[in-house]
Amino acid sequence: MISDMDKSDLLQGTLDMLILKVVTLGPIHGYGIARRIQQISKDALQVQQGSLYPALHRLENRGWLTAEWGQSESGREAKFYSLTKQGRKQLEAEAENWDRLALAIGLIMQTSR
Amino acid sequence: MRWIKTLFRKERLENQLERELRFHIEQQTEDLMAEGLSREEARRRVMVGFGGREVVKERCRDVRGVRWIEDFWQDLGYGVRHLRGSPLFTLVAVLSLALGIGANTAIFSLIDTIMLRSMPVAEPDRLVELMRYMPRGRGAISYPLFEQLSTESRSFTATFAHSSVDVRHISFGSEEEPVRTALASAGYYSTLGVQAVLGRTFGEEDERAPVAVVSYAWWYRRFGGDPNVIGKAFRRNGTLFTIIGVTPKGFLGPIVGSPSEVTFPLKMDAEVRGEESVINRADYSWLSVMARLRPGVSRGEAQAEVSGLFRRGLEQEASKVELRDRKEILERRMELRPAGNGFVGLSERYAEPLTALMGIVAIVLLLACSNLANLLLARAMARRREISVRLAVGAGKGRIIRQLMAESLLLAAIGGASGIALALWLSNGLIRMMSAGGLSMLFEITPDLRVLGFTASASVLTCLLFGLIPAWQAARVQVNPTLKEGRLGDRARWRRGLVVIQVALSLLLVIGGGLFVRTLANLNSMEPGFDRRGVFMFDVDLRKAGYKGDRMKAMQERIVERLNAIPGVESASFANVRPVSGGGWDGNVNVEGYTPKPDEHAQAHFNAVSPGHFRTLRTPILLGREFTERDSAKAPKVVIVNEAFVKRYFGGTAPLGKQVNKAEVVGVVKDMKYRTLRQEIPPTAY
After folding, report:
1. pTM surpassing 0.95?
2. Which member of A33, B241, B491, B552 lies 3.0 to 4.6 Å from B547 by CB, making a disulfide possible if both were Cys?
């Protein structure tokens, strides 16, 4: 289990990609993003707040995410993030990159086995 | 543009960040409680997971992209507090900067105006001044000589002659008003390539017409810039002159520091000056001459041609005089000088003091920079502890450097602003200082922007450089402790070196400054030969009012009588030539018992003064007596001479009773400055 997913643990930009991917499913708040990553990865990935929020703010600042205030399931006020057009493009590019990288790494790992 | 918005929404963003994080904490706590944990345990786990809320916030702020601006403001605020905390340092640094920037800008602006700046005319580098030199110094040019040279020379496309600028009176109605006037020949405007902004300038076709061209400044002052000024007529010496044009704003005439307001055609000299007109006299040199070189002709070639022409005239002249005067005449020569800045008179006179001043202020700038450097270095040393502490608690190196830079910038900004203020103030002060002694100078000096830019950037760079070096070093010191000792040693040596330089420069400055101030003081308080206190001088022109001969004399006497009658007036007198008025009257003298050497002209300055003149000026009578009422026109002719006269013409013999120009010497007075304060006191006869 990768417990503390920090920028030193995960390739730079990987967290950004994961966030963007999760946000494609619809507007979602920060806590929701962390939970969803944890659920989808079957608890393999846990995103710490210390990495999550700076990443969210960075993505928002670059114009890949927009944010709106709304009501959470529990009736609390929360900041919901959604993907912008630019963000979608960015995600596509990054996913493509990731596929290539994963394939390349997989090939290397297989031959050396 | 996002970052600008971000900058202004700072408070809202902070608030939102706090709310966002609080939601996360509350929601997670609730979820954990749903799994069966107690509120306290859930809360604890959440907070552990967060790992410090402020750290998270800080990292969120970092990604906003306006961090550096926010930091900069913070740095500035911190810098202000810090500078205020050490007022002495701040004062010295700012003063030093202000002095460096201000003094340099002021002096260089002055030098630029007087010596370097070209007139706003077409191709100023093709202009030359024709200068006549006599064995004893520079002389002006007579009108006939100008005519001869301008018609015979082939090296120039155009030439013109220009008189000095003198205050004369003109009247638009009954009221007489003083204006600064000059006379210029027909080629004046065409040679310079100056076009009128309103109306037209005069040229060949109206050189004998009663017309005048006025300056922009005067037009603005006198007529408020009224375009109807063209065609307006004024009376001068009984002739009606019509204003035909206004010259451009930046054009102040060819005489630096002495712009004319109303310019007449030279050939109208007789009308403008009346009986004083000297236009046709070859023995009266009063003009400055400028010419524009023909394309392809160099200054050297032109000089050769003009010298030849001039020489021919000299030989003719020399053939007419006695043998012993010939040599003096033949030694005269003509020289051409670049005249793009205007006639050289003023620049020549002030070149030396100005260059000296420039040297001194350059040293001041150097000193200011080294001072600053030293101050900043010393300060950085003193702050090493503070910097180490900040590094230890996790401040970034870059951040610390930026902060020190902000402080330096702040210093530079304050110093620069004071420097500009000082430059303005000094420019005005300098003009006043230079115009002391009766020489009126009208300048348009504005601190030169280029100079200001240069001095300001020099100072600011110093600030930044010497603010940066210690910051850099201080930031490095912590990282590599072994480096620390070596670094410190280097720096100490460097600082000692600076101190030595500074002391040396300070000494130089004190000595140079002292010498300069003495020169200035000499000029300002030069012994004029009379007691300046309580002396009031003015000019009266009786001829203009129609007085002549005996009636004029009677009037003069009456004026003195009436002045003497005023309570509070101790004594009054008149003189033909007012002391240090700039004017003069000289001629040959025939002194009893003195035989001039073959190549010498026995000359002296003259003045005609009324009885009581020396008493009024409190000039000590060294021998004999002062003029009295009895020395009237009918009495035997008497003369009073000054010390310089006695020294030159009587040698060791007793002067009283000797004859000078058929008048008996009755007194000797202490030397009195004659034309200007700067000149040597000439032998003078009264």
Report:
1. no
2. B552
